[in-house]
Each structure stands twice: as C-alpha cells, then as structure tokens.
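Please, structure for the following, as tokens.
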Amino acid sequence: MGEEIAISLKNVSKCYKRYARPVDRLKEILLPGKSSAQEFWALRDINLEIPKGETLGIIGQNGSGKSTMLQIIAKTLTPTTGEVQVNGRVSALLELGSGFNPEFTGRQNVFFNGRLLGLSHEEIEDKFDEIAAFADIGDFIDQPVKTYSSGMFVRLAFAVAVSVNPDILIVDEALAVGDIYFQQRCFDRIKTLRDLGTTLLFVSHDSMAVYKLCHRAVLMEAGQLVLDAKPKQVIDLYQAKLLQKMDVQPEKLEIQTKSNSNYGILQENKKFSVAQEELEEVVINLPEVSLNFIKFFNEDDQETEAVISDRSVELSIGLLFLKSFDDPHIGFKIRDRLGEVVFETNTFCMGQTVGQVESETLLEVRFKFQVPLMEGEYTITVGVADSACGQTSFKQTLVYAHNVAILKVLKNKEAILWSGMVNLSPHLSIFRHTYV
C-alpha cells in the first residue's frame, strides 16, 4: 500500500452463519461436510481506498453494513474474504463504552484504554488532566463506570480516543449522545484533528455534520457500496432512497440520476462505480406530475434573478398535473453552496391545503418570504407529495428535484455588519442602573 493511502479495502466481504437450532452448530463441528447453516453476507466485495488526511462520511440505513466495515478496519472483526491494509495508529469509537470495564473507575479505565491504544503509562499520566478536563465529569472520574449515565460514558470514551493523537480516528454515531456543549467541543476537536492531517471515518445520520466535516462520502446499502462521491451527492441519493422506502408503492418509484448529459434510471441492483464525479443530481419525478417552471418575483411583483438581503422575494413553482390527485402538497428547500439546508417547509407544515387537483391542470404555487441571508448563491429544491401522514411523511412522492433554480442574494448596503447564516436584525437598547 502506498504511503499516501491510510486505508485500503480490496474485495472485502464478511459472512455470518445463522443456525435454526443450537444443535445444528454442533452437527457442523462434528460433521464438517454437512452444514445446515444459512449464510448472511453483512459485506460483499467492498473496494475502498482512503488517502491520508481525508475525512470520509459513511452513510446508510441501519443494517447496511457500516459498523461491520468499521470493525474490520479497526481489526475487531476479521473479514471472510478480501484484503485489509491500515497504515497508522487507529483510535475507534465504535460502540458506547466499548473497551471499558464497568467495574473499574473512570480513572482506571483511562489508563487501561490508553494502554490498549498504544500509550505508555507515563504518556497517560501526562495527558490525564487534559483527558479529565475534556470529559468534564467531575468527581465521577473516581467512581465505577457502571454508575455513569450514557452521556458521561461517551464523554470519557471520546476524551480518551482523541487524546492519543491518532493517525486514523473512527467515530460511529457516538456523538449523538451528550448535551449540545459537549457535542460542540467534540466537533471542534474533530476539526482540529482533521486540520492536523488525521484521517477520519465518520458515521452519522446527521447530514449537516457530514456536510461540514467530510471531504467525501460513501453510501452503503445491503452490505455494498452504492455510491462514492461528494457528500452532497451521497446524501441526496440517501434521502431519495428513504423517500422511496416510505412510499406507498416503493417498487414503482424510480430514482433518476442527472449527469452532465442526461437523466438515467437508477436500477435497484445497479452499483455506481467508485468516484462517480459525473453524477450531478438525484431526481424523483413521476410522469403524472412535472415541474414546469421556477420563477422569482421581487417586492414590485416583477420577475427577477436576484434579491437584496433582508428584502422579501416570491418563489413561484409551476407544476403540470396529468392525473387527478386529492391531497397534493408542495414544498421547497433552500441550500447554501455546500449543500447545507438553510430553510425548508411545505404547504402541510404551513397549515395550508391545495385541495383536489384535476388532470390536465397547470398549478402555480407561490411562497413569499424574507431573505435574511448573507450575499451569495443559494439553490432551490422542490418537493411534491400526495396524502400527508405527518410533518415529513407522505404516502406518495411525486416530485423531488434538487438545484432546480438558483437564488442570488445581493448585499444590503443599509444593513448592519454581521456574519453567520441568518441576519437576525437585532435591536439594541442600553440602560444604566444605579447599583446599591
């Protein structure tokens, strides 16, 4: 393996055997040629190379093989077939408190885990105050770990894992536990390690975290790599697959992929090759409903391509219905240049109903809203669904299309100086009181 590659997986597969009865396992040991086990392949033919210093997001539904792959990289599992090469010291947060002895105190577990991660006793002593300060669990550091809450558990585990300055850090959903202050400190520490050149494998269902942290992402499904691309592309495909899964007729809902040249149907058993840079957009568009136009109107009701920050704009969405629907709902999403969601809503969330739409109807829906955003370009995603079951749940997805329009926001020269994602337009009051 080249010195610039941190992790290499070649044709890696993992198979588990399932037995209907415990005695069947014994029979297989006594009679090697006769197996009644059912094979379950948790991973199949995984090929993946991760360069040193890269942050890779790993996305997929539960049971897709994410944790199995990470355990093989961390060498807590052995692959059934294939070759795994890891170049550098690995620190892994795979399961909450894995490697901790519940009978030991937090202090004892710090030394025990530190030695497992390759630190000497003297190195752990030098780092102990830093670890304890980061974990911030107070006097509980000298209490048995079995008395800890889940939040305290992961605080200490994370503090130990990042203290060794690993070459490769693996984080598997561990940051979902803990309060917001601890999560912010964890992300700050991860960003520091990333900037120092640590290779990071990050598993999370939080798409915003993947957008912010990762250079690249992979989507896993049924033990296979489905897509290896930029985080935005991978997350878009993942979310489209979730919509497909929740649809009333998932087998009929086709996910389309828009490349530089055309649209293509994503076949259920088709795998994307690694580094699919030509994939631009993921689209769901049933033939019965089509997106006819997207327009912006300014405060004077004139069509425009740009809006001044802090002013209002009207988003006009034109939809052609070739079939009657009783309860269609329309929504939109605004994303920044990195793909992070700035705002989203739909008619159901707004407490509005479109009512029955007859076949051969061109429906125009207008959303008027303020634009308290930093100057720049923002993309529009449009979604149309039928029969609402809840805030984000519908029986049938009709349209799901990313980047159908660009909203250009111009600087408001009259506004205060500010930074961040949204201008909250603060008002200032100053009071002087006599202190007694």
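The chain has eight helices and 20 strands. Confidence is low (pLDDT under 50) at residues 260-279.
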